[in-house]
Amino acid sequence: xxxxxxxxxxxxxxxxxxxxxxxxxxxxxxxxxxxxxxxxxxxxxxxxxxxxxxxxxxxxxxxxxxxxxxxxxxxxxxxxxxxxxxxxxxxxxxxxxxxxxxxxxxxxxxxxxxxxxxxxxxxxxxxxxxxxxxxxxxxxxxxxxxxxxxxxxxxxxxxxxxxxxxxxxxxxxxxxxxxxxxxxxxxxxxxxxxxxxxxxxxxxxxxxxxxxxxxxxxxxxxxxxxxxxxxxxxxxxxxxxxxxxx
Amino acid sequence: xxxxxxxxxxxxxxxxxxxxxxxxxxxxxxxxxxxxxxxxxxxxxxxxxxxxxxxxxxxxxxxxxxxxxxxxxxxxxxxxxxxxxxxxxxxxxxxxxxxxxxxxxxxxxxxxxxxxxxxxxxxxxxxxxxxxxxxxxxxxxxxxxxxxxxxxxxxxxxxxxxxxxxxxxxxxxxxxxxxxxxxxxxxxxxxxxxxxxxxxxxxxxxxxxxx
Lengths: 246, 211
Prior knowledge:
The structure holds 2 protein chains of 2 kinds. Chain A is an alpha/beta fold. Chain A contains 12 helices and 7 strands. A 5-stranded parallel beta sheet of chain A has the order 2-3-4-1-5, sandwiched between helices. Chain A has a two-stranded parallel ribbon with strand order 6-7. By secondary structure, chain B is α+β, with helices and mostly antiparallel strands. In chain B, helix 2 (33-40) crosses helix 3, helix 4 (111-122) packs across helix 5 and helix 5 packs across helix 6 (144-156). The chains are: A alpha/beta, B alpha+beta.
């Protein structure tokens, strides 16, 4: 049944995706004297990865996800791997290879989990890459990332063109998500609002609950659901189960 | 004559002729088709078609004619030898060979697969619907069946790990195994349903076919 549903192609309608998309577009069009570093920050589950994947595909960006134990060399090597270039031996040569490829193609660079990079004091690497390539670099991290940059690496903090704070899901995001994850079930507004409130705008958990409601609805053989029908059934909140009252 | 299966080039430095030609072009910057032939040992027709496409796409321009083997009047000594063009690289668009048709327009075939491969690397986990959704950007539309198929074969070939098995009403969730990201080129499902990884240049599944 679900095979007949065509993809809705509306990832681009989600608030955080739109914010990131606008920031990246303006960074790509910026005047040459403007800085080109971007920072997308917010707590986990707000859909930062969704935004990252959209930008990666849309702008054919080079994407890497940091790991806590990565060294500078590991970052450089992994960027080159994503670009499909065999790395030279030394780090300065690798940096040149990266600069040459990114500036020739105009592809932006996205570094996910950038907290690891900043925590390790490797952030100057971002400056180096930016300087040799002049293409936008998007750092993605948790909500404290801007603060960390300010206290640890003011030089980079000053070169950030846009700070994008990931927003909690709103009503229209929830609607978009139902179209993506439960196109065969009609959700009523109040139920979506209830879900969104329960999970505090966490996109990932909104999705989990949309799936949960969809499953329940399919079992009950209903195609349209509202708050009354859902009633007191429990939603997934990600919290460990409360102790039952005796 | 149909193109040979890509795995026939296994072991060669470049997985397709165009990649080899492009690398030679980037090295030389200015060249004749004969130069490229000497560098790459690829078929003359293949090279000239590609050079033509690149010229129409504005990546190369013709800057003159090769006058070697001519007398001072510009007449070739041998009548049958026409004067080969000299081309120059004007737009270096990176290490990846531009995918252009003969008229210089961009080839869109395969974009869906490329998008899916990118999305798989970025998303922490995904099911086929999410994959199709995220990979459908701009004019590229990835069908749900295509996403399902691609996941199926990449899982068999060991690129993906099953995170949560499917149950009635919910699709299976997968994630890419980090160490199995071999490079930017998407593994291809060949017509014979073998998985060929152009990043390493070989058939990786089924095992008995892997060289």
